């Protein structure tokens, strides 16, 4: 049923929303494409799995620690890429973040193995049946969490001192420092927020699809970048729309053409979209500071 595939796509899109927003945060404020995000996504899922299965911790505690680990891992990236290298050529921090992607993945392979692992959840199959549609309750919760967190983030950016400081940095970092914005305090907060969004995406992915591996972040991150581009780089609500669109397109592609051709359809449509509207859906609504 076509409607069922649309529902499935919206549920899947919640994961892409979180990753797309994480990319949007760093590129919208700092003009920095953080390539360590796929590894942080993976860390959220893998560390939660390890703490539950190997550490015998309660499920909620393990998930909370995995969530916090994402923020910490992102903070390490900030300290050793953006902070140390921000005065160098713009490509240098970007390449350094790729180094952290490789480092995190291989640390997990070294200590936890390279195989796909089954992620345990405290509940069995839980589905709602509405008008003939099957809706997974965990996936529905993931969608609600994703949209709710983006709404909270939007409020933080618009209504708080931290948000005003981030918008000032997005407009002009040098001017922001002259006006008294402590970038050495504000920028790490940005990385921690983006890391926690990313790790939560990895945890929700693991909980919904019941598997984790050291490489789960790579494919999801590509679709998160696609979501960011479609929405318009720097616009968090654009990333939400882009993530949901990518999720629906993937579900429909699998339904009509099979899983082997889904990637071709998704990225072919992305290329066509860029030819028609290269700024994205919301990318032409003011400068970065207004879009964030």
Q: Can you offer a commentary on this structure?
A:
- By secondary structure, the protein is mainly α.
- The chain has one domain.
- The chain is 76% helix and 4% strand.
- The chain contains twelve helices and four strands, in the order ααααβββααααβαααα.
- The strands form two sheets. It has a two-stranded antiparallel sheet. Strands 2-3 form a two-stranded antiparallel sheet.
- Strand 2 and strand 3 form a beta hairpin.
- Helix 1 runs antiparallel to helix 8.
- The longest helix is centred in the N-terminal third of the chain and has 29 residues.
- The protein starts with a helix and ends with a helix.
- The C terminus is likely disordered.
Structure keywords:
mainly alpha, disordered C terminus, globular, two-stranded antiparallel ribbon, 292 residues
Please give the count of helices: 12
| Strand-residue proportion | under 5%
The largest sheet, given as strand count, sense and whether it forms a barrel, is: 2 strands, antiparallel
> What's the shape?
globular
Question: What series of H and E elements makes up the topology?
Answer: HHHHEEEHHHHEHHHH
- Give the end-to-end Cα distance, rounded to a whole number of Å: 38 Å
Query: What structural category do the secondary elements indicate?
Result: mainly alpha
Oligomer: single chain
Q: Which radius of gyration do the C-alpha atoms yield?
A: 19 Å
Low-confidence stretches: 286-292
Strand elements, count? 4
Q: Reading side by side through the largest sheet, how are the strands ordered?
A: 1-4
In terms of topology, how is this protein built?
Layout: H1 2-30, H2 37-53, H3 59-85, H4 91-112, E1 117-118, E2 127-130, E3 133-136, H5 137-159, H6 161-171, H7 173-178, H8 183-209, E4 211-212, H9 216-231, H10 236-257, H11 259-276, H12 288-291
Antiparallel strand pairs: 1-4, 2-3
Helix pairs in contact: 1-5, 1-8, 1-9, 1-10, 2-3, 2-4, 2-8, 2-9, 3-4, 3-8, 5-6, 5-8, 6-8, 9-10, 10-11
């Amino acid at each position: 049923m076509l409607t069922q595939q649309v529902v499935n796509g919206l549920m899947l899109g919640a994961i892409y929303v979180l990753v797309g927003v994480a990319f949007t945060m760093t590129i919208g404020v700092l003009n920095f494409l953080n390539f360590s995000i796929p590894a942080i996504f993976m860390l959220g899922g893998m560390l939660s799995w390890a703490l539950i299965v190997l550490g015998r911790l309660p499920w909620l505690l393990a998930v909370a620690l995995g969530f916090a680990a994402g923020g910490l891992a992102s903070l390490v990236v900030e300290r050793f890429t953006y902070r140390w290298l921000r005065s160098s050529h713009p490509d240098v921090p970007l390449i350094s973040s790729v180094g952290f992607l490789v480092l995190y993945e291989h640390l997990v392979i070294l200590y936890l193995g390279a195989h796909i692992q089954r992620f345990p959840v405290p509940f069995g199959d839980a589905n709602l049946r509405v008008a003939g549609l099957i809706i997974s309750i965990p996936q529905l919760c993931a969608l609600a969490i994703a949209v709710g967190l983006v709404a909270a983030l939007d409020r933080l950016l618009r209504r708080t001192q931290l948000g005003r400081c981030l918008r000032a940095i997005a407009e002009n970092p040098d001017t922001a420092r002259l006006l008294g914005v402590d970038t050495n305090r504000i920028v790490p907060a940005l990385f921690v927020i983006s890391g926690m969004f990313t790790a939560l995406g990895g945890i929700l992915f693991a909980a919904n699809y019941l598997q984790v591996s050291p490489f789960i972040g790579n494919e999801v991150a590509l679709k998160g970048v696609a979501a960011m581009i479609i929405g318009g780089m720097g616009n968090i609500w654009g990333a939400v729309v882009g993530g949901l669109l990518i999720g629906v397109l993937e579900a429909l592609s699998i339904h009509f053409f099979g899983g082997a051709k889904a990637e071709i359809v998704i990225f072919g449509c992305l290329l066509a979209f860029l030819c028609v509207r290269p700024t994205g859906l919301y990318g032409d609504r003011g400068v970065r500071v207004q879009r964030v």
